[in-house]
Amino acid sequence: MIRLDTVTMTYPAGTRPALRDVTLRIDEGEFVFLVGPSGSGKSTLLRLLLREERATSGLVTIDGVDLAAIPDRRVPLLRRTIGCVFQDFRLLPDRTVARNVAFALDVVGRPRHVVRTIVPEVLGLVGLAGKESRYPDELSGGEQQRVAVARAMVGRPRVLLADEPTGNLDPATSEGIMRLLDAVNRTGTTVIMATHNAALVDARRRRVVELADGTCVRDERDGAYETASKQTANRRPPGATVGVG
Amino acid sequence: MRIGPLLAILGAGLRRNLAVTSAVVITAAVCLSMLGAGLLLRAEVHTIDGYLLDQLEVVIDLNDTITPAQRAALIWDLRADPDVLDVRYETKQQVFERFARDFRASPDVVSGVTAADLPAALRLRLTDPRAGDQIVLEYTGRDGVEAVRDQRALLRPLYRVLGGFSVAAFALAAVQAAASSLLIYTMIRVSAHARRRETAIMRLVGATNSTIRAPFVLECALSGLLGGALAGGTLVAAKIFLVDRRFAHQTMFPLFGWDAVWASGGAVLAVGAVAAAAMGSLALRRHLHA
Questions:
Q1: Are A76 and A95 in the same domain?
Q2: Helix, strand, coil: what percent of chain B each, to 5?
Q3: Is residue B187 domain-shared with residue B125, that is, in the same domain?
Q4: Where in B134-212 does DSSP place strands (E)?
Q5: How far apart are CA A183 and CA A186, in angstroms?
Q6: What pLDDT, in 10s, does the model give residues B49-84?
Q7: Could you say which of B1, B201, B207 has the minimum Cβ distance to residue A76?
Q8: A50 lies in the same domain as A115
Q9: Vertex A135, ends A132 and A140: CA angle to 5°?
Q10: 3-state SS of A209-241?
Q11: pLDDT value at position A229?
């Protein structure tokens, strides 16, 4: 469904590429952990999928559609098929929980009766029934992230991108959010989650894609959260050692 | 986007930006009042023109020495002239009677003049009363012609004054328009900054560019419209208190009517809304990257 083919991405002001020759294939309904240190290119990869950036070279396609070839005015239609969750929740503080979720439907012109039925339904699914009229600052971090997940899911996207969704949450709450994303994935939604949370990754044993310095250094089914250096050190063939002897 | 959510965003934006929005409304109101005043002054020129034009004539004063043959030739030429609608000959006696009638309020003036003192005249009505200059040039100096007078020329100083005032009003409007534009630019900058989280989310969930921009542009259009409404109110007040209550008693010229006020009011409303929205869209290009 999602394919990256030798994708290199250099930001206009950047001296070295944020992504270098990344080739990746993600099938419909998969759950993928994207790991790697800060600055390794995880966020850039997510931004490419959202068409917030265009690859400098190489091909990014979703369902066979070349994202770079989509004209700017059609980009909103692409984004309606992709949900997003962030570390900082990005809720609107002056709107209630229900209005925050409804916002995603309102601004794409969904009719009122649709908004009125779907929003309570989705809030129920994420475990926020009864908190519709609370404001974000009246909620805990975990609850706020649930609102964000509800907002991302309310448009029934085919892909959910989560950029360190548990970065601001304690372990127990993180586990709750993780379970929620699992549930989203079980409905058939492809989930790509960038994370630094080793415990979550190790507990799940899902597919893990590791980036380091913009290159894809590991792509493992049933993977664990391990550092790139350990992996490369373990796997480096004897002849490939770099250095002067 | 549906109208409800759009209005909610618009309302929130207006509340948040009340101070800058008020400044835009006030400058727009001053600017548009000036524009309206200029338009009304022009309307006044038209009103005077329309009222007086069919009464204005070109008068050819004839020499006392003119022969009947010269006079007949002159009238013949005038009748053949396509610019001339109608030619009437007035004898010295008729000219005197008209003079006596025009100055009936000043018997002293009339008593000092006799019919012999005044020249016989040809009175012309023109197809286009504004083309008097041409006739004056053409017939001045002809045999038996003493002088050619275009009565409309008497109004020129008045027209110059009215024209000058309207130019001044338009110039002030232009200065105010520049100030309004800068304020709208600032309003959009402040507004785009205050709503950056909202617009970022809109973009993320797939709102179109026009949806993201609509509340901003509407905010500008509304400010312009409000400024236009205030300006329209000013024009109406000026018509009631200044024109009808004051000037009407001080001048013998006809004054513009309510139709001119409605036309100018409509114009400032439309200009206010459209120009502000256009300026807002322009500023958005700078401050709201898509």
A1: no
A2: 75, 10, 15
A3: no
A4: 145-150
A5: 5
A6: 777 776 778 889 998 888 888 888 888 988 888 888
A7: B207
A8: no
A9: 95
A10: EEEECCEEEEEECCCCCCCHHHHHHHHCCHHHC
A11: 53
Domain count, chain B: 2
* Encoded amino acid at B249, one letter: H
Q: Are residues B78 and B28 in the same domain?
A: no
Give ∠ CA B265-B269-B273 in degrees, rounded to 5.
170
Q: Which CA distances in Å does B211 have to A44, A73, A174, B1, B19?
A: 26, 12, 35, 6, 25
Query: Which structural domain range is residue A32 located in?
Result: 1-81+204-239
Both structure tokens of B147 = 């002088």
Q: Determine the distance in angstroms separating the CA of B186 from the nearest CA of chain A, rounded to an integer.
A: 23
**B197, A103: Cβ pair inside 8 Å?**
no
Contacts of B5 in chain A (CB under 8 A): 102-103, 106-107
What is the C-alpha separation between A35 and B235, in angstroms, rounded? 68
- What are the chain B neighbours of A108 within 8 Å (beta carbons)? 1, 205-207, 211
A78 contacts B208? CB cut-off 8 A = no
How many CB pairs lie under 8 A apart between chains A and B? 61
Together in a domain, A51 and A121: no
Flag whether pLDDT at A64 surpasses 70: yes
Cβ-contact B224, B187 below 8 angstroms:
no
pTM of the model: 0.77
